[in-house]
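Why show two proteins at once? Because comparison is the fastest way to build intuition. When a single record is shown, students tend to memorize it. When two are placed side by side, the eye starts asking what differs. So, the first record is below.
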Amino acid sequence: MAAFLCFAGMELIQNTADLSAYLAADEAIDHHHPVVRRTAGRLAAEATDSYDYARAAFAYVRDAVAHSQDSGDPRVTWRASDVLALGTGICHAKSHALAALLRAEDIPTALCYQRLTRDEGGHVLHGLVAVRFHGAWHRQDPRGNKFGVDARFSLTGERLAWTPDPAAGERDHPLLYAEPHPLVLAALRSARDRAHLWRTLPDSL
């Protein structure tokens, strides 16, 4: 396994050494789907380079796709094309959509996770992505901003939605996954609605 320093205090670790795995399509990151290709093409047409495209794709998923908890939308999405078509999803779904848009333009993108405290108590896994530029991985959080949350695209220092508090049982998971973690994907696929999903999302890997 290869590790790449992301920020002081933690290394991000590929769970596969094959970088091409972070460009692949799968059932959730279906970047060959026409909806994904159209969205990527529209964003790419206005971008000046790969960095500008990545920043635009991040902003699009963060701002144009509603976080279903914030908006009150009961629908559960998990496939990138559905997230983009319906314009809704939780953090994991939005991460799948961003990964698909970035991989559609040959930018290696990984899925990664944090363990955070739920508002109602307990813990839950939070999903975000890492993008590879300049020989290193950089985490980005497209979950969507709200009061108290100001996540931004950055390669010069993380601008994530949250910083885990170890004293509260929170943590960053350093592994970079080429595919959605099976526990997360199983919960998304089996959920009848967002309320059901909220009860079944894993709280650890």
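Second record. Ask yourself what differs from the first in the token line.
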Amino acid sequence: MEVLLLYFLFVNIIVFFLAGYDKYQARKNKQRIPENTLFFLEAIGGTVGLLLAMLLFRHKTSKTSFIVKFTLIFLIQIVLVYLKMTHKV
């Protein structure tokens, strides 16, 4: 259980800092972090980190397509956790 918690902590810290770095790069008009990278990290457990970065840095919050994809991944995660908790997966 501790390994799983450390894993989630690590992934969330990584995605948080990458999203912050992406915002920094956006302000400087430099090379950005691909959205698919952020979505991949969200999908493997970085949802909280990405959400916190979005709110704290006000990053990607006005981009509808990003919000929709973020929400879709989050909803899939909720369904998977529910199914796992009810032993249907």
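One difference worth noting in the second protein: The CA atoms of residues 72 and 84 lie 18 Å apart.
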